[in-house]
Design brief:
The chain is α+β, with helices and mostly antiparallel strands and 241 residues long. The chain folds into two domains: 1-119, Jelly Rolls (Sandwich), CATH 2.60.120; 146-226, Winged helix-like DNA-binding domain superfamily/Winged helix DNA-binding domain (Arc Repressor Mutant, subunit A, Orthogonal Bundle). Helices cover 45% and strands 21% of the residues. It contains ten helices and ten strands. It has a four-stranded antiparallel sheet with strand order 2-6-4-5. It has a three-stranded antiparallel sheet with strand order 1-7-3. A three-stranded antiparallel sheet has the order 8-10-9.
């Protein structure tokens, strides 16, 4: 397990938004965990025993059809938390939660988080705001998948991933990206080729290096900016929590 000087709860933006006294109260219940690629944190219809606050990992929320095809409906990185169904009353969801990008995060027993939420502490308002932002991401993903080109969808996905990782080098196969977007691998190959020819990315053997982020932001559809604007709007002064 890495040392505490390398990993801190405040590397997750939700935890960082809490006042020092609030975070200190939760700290003893937060467990640092490694989140390996492909790890299934929750199956369709399953109940979460823990909520997760990713710091360097990214979790994909996706739905798997009866024929085995799947599509991502949202992602959760260092901006959020996995487990909003816990306090929304549904307890379970039809989607799966799988680690898309390996890394670390903090987990907390679901029962303890529910107790904290039900006490109407500041974390309740914070998590409700995050849930609204997550709902925006889910709805905008549905709109994007229906109305925009694969190239635009790929730009959106790349930018959201960059925001969560804070780096320009991604380890990701075309097969996995195609699964995330719910499209054929050939479509991703063609879209990535266009972006590479335009000098925006360099792709080789499962690694994507973003060379021109500004170019991606000009090329992407409005869906990326809608999601980013909503997160910024809801959390512009998060320290008040």
């Amino acid at each position: 397990m890495p040392s505490s000087c390398q990993h801190q709860p405040i590397q997750n933006q939700l935890l960082a938004a809490l006042r020092t006294t609030q975070l200190e109260r939760l700290a003893s219940h937060l467990e640092l965990v490694h989140m390996p690629l492909g790890d299934v944190l929750c199956e369709s219809g399953g109940r979460l025993h823990y909520v997760y606050f990713p710091t360097s990992a990214i979790v994909s929320l996706h739905y798997i059809l009866e024929n085995g095809a799947s599509s991502e409906i949202a992602g959760v990185g260092n901006e959020g938390m996995l487990g909003v169904s816990l306090f929304m009353g549904g307890e379970t969801t039809p989607s799966w939660a799988t680690v898309q990008t390996a890394g670390y995060g903090y987990r907390m027993k679901a029962g303890l988080m529910l107790q904290e939420f039900n006490q109407a502490t500041p974390i309740q308002r914070l998590l409700l705001r995050y849930t609204q932002a997550l709902m925006t991401q889910i709805s905008q993903t549905a709109v994007c998948n229906r109305h925009h080109t694969i190239e635009q969808q790929l730009c959106r996905w790349l930018l959201l991933t960059l925001d969560r990782l804070g780096c320009q080098d991604l380890t990701m196969t075309q097969e996995l990206i195609a699964s995330m977007l719910g499209v054929r691998r050939e479509g991703i190959t063609e879209a990535a080729g266009k972006l590479q020819n335009a000098g925006m990315i360099r792709y080789r053997r499962g690694h994507i290096m973003v060379l021109d982020r500004a170019g991606l932001e000009k090329h992407v559809c409005e869906c990326y900016h809608v999601v980013k604007k909503e997160f910024d709007r809801l959390f512009w002064d998060v320290r008040k929590f």
